[in-house]
């Protein structure tokens, strides 16, 4: 009995030894920074000079109630998440179902659809900025058919929507590949049985495909939630870091960046905002899992 216990302990020690590099990286670059951000959120931080820390308790959190820019950033982020996640999920499903239908040249279309995912986010943003410019491609096409162009980058009512369109187009192909892999796992015999019973293509899609893909849809929605809540680079590039015009593209992560690195003495407040954002993402993810009819298997 003791010999078996020693053998088991030795095997466990060997396992942890081989895992130690990954555990060390996890501790240094994920767990450590998270704990440090929580620590900073209860302090007033002076980065310049001696880098002093002053404990302020919950003052950084109570400050959120009076910060109008934080409220605007949160509203912009929630609106962005509420529109982009369903739209990119629906588009990814439609694209995957189309490619899975056995159309001619589907290998070519798979490559074409997936190209935006392979392109750098910064490069895509710059391309869309050129397209959205007053003298850009989109306005030139609108004027060519007799319609008035739009000030996509300078109109507060349009700027965030322009980022939404870009991100829906660029992120849907990644989820399309996930859906496509799941679609190919659905037995063909199920569709054949439905055809024998007289089901049309819509009935097969709605009654067979969609229910079979619920675990994948849950995974896609969770990944979409996590990604969209962290919108930063596109908003930063579109507005040159300001969140404009008129704070219309200001997101929570961009505001955290501004308070952390652009304003003196607000690093602790930025850490509090980051902590609140992490809680919001966690709660949104748990709620999404709770209301999913099936637990994700992926």
From TrEMBL:
GO terms for biological process: transmembrane transport. It is found in: Cell membrane. The chain crosses the membrane at residues 21-42, 78-99, 111-132, 158-182, 213-232, 267-287. It comes from the Bacteria. Belongs to the binding-protein-dependent transport system permease family. This is Sugar ABC transporter permease. InterPro entries: ABC_transporter_permease, MetI-like, MetI-like_sf. SUPFAM superfamilies: MetI-like. Gene3D superfamilies: MetI-like. Keywords: Cell membrane, Membrane, Transmembrane, Transmembrane helix, Transport. Residues 74-288 form the ABC transmembrane type-1 domain. The keyword Transferase does not apply. It is a multi-pass membrane protein. Pfam families: BPD_transp_1 (PF00528). GO terms for cellular component: plasma membrane.
């Amino acid at each position: 009995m003791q010999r078996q216990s020693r053998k088991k302990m030795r095997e466990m020690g060997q396992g942890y030894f081989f895992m130690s590099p990954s555990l060390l990286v996890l501790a240094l670059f994920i767990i450590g920074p998270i704990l440090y951000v929580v620590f900073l959120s209860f302090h007033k931080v002076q980065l310049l000079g001696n880098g002093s820390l002053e404990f302020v308790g919950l003052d950084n959190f109570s400050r959120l109630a009076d910060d109008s820019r934080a409220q605007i950033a949160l509203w912009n982020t929630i609106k962005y998440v509420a529109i982009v996640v369903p739209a990119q999920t629906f588009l990814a499903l439609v694209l995957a179902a189309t490619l899975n239908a056995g159309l001619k040249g589907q290998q070519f279309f798979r490559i074409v659809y997936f190209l935006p995912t392979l392109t750098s986010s910064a490069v895509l943003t710059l391309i869309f900025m050129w397209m959205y410019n007053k003298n850009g491609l989109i306005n030139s096409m609108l004027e060519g058919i007799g319609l008035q162009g739009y000030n996509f980058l300078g109109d507060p009512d349009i700027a965030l929507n322009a980022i939404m369109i870009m991100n829906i187009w660029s992120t849907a192909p990644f989820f399309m590949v996930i859906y496509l892999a799941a679609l190919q796992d659905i037995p063909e015999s199920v569709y054949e049985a439905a055809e024998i019973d007289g089901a049309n293509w819509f009935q097969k899609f709605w009654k067979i495909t969609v229910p079979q893909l619920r675990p994948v849809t849950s995974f896609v929605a969770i990944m979409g939630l996590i990604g969209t809540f962290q919108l930063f680079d596109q908003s930063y590039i579109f507005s040159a870091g300001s969140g404009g015009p008129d704070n219309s593209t200001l997101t929570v992560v961009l505001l955290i960046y501004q308070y952390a690195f652009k304003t003196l003495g607000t690093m602790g407040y930025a850490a509090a905002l980051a902590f609140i954002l992490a809680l919001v993402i966690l709660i949104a993810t748990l709620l999404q899992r709770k209301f999913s009819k099936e637990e994700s298997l992926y």
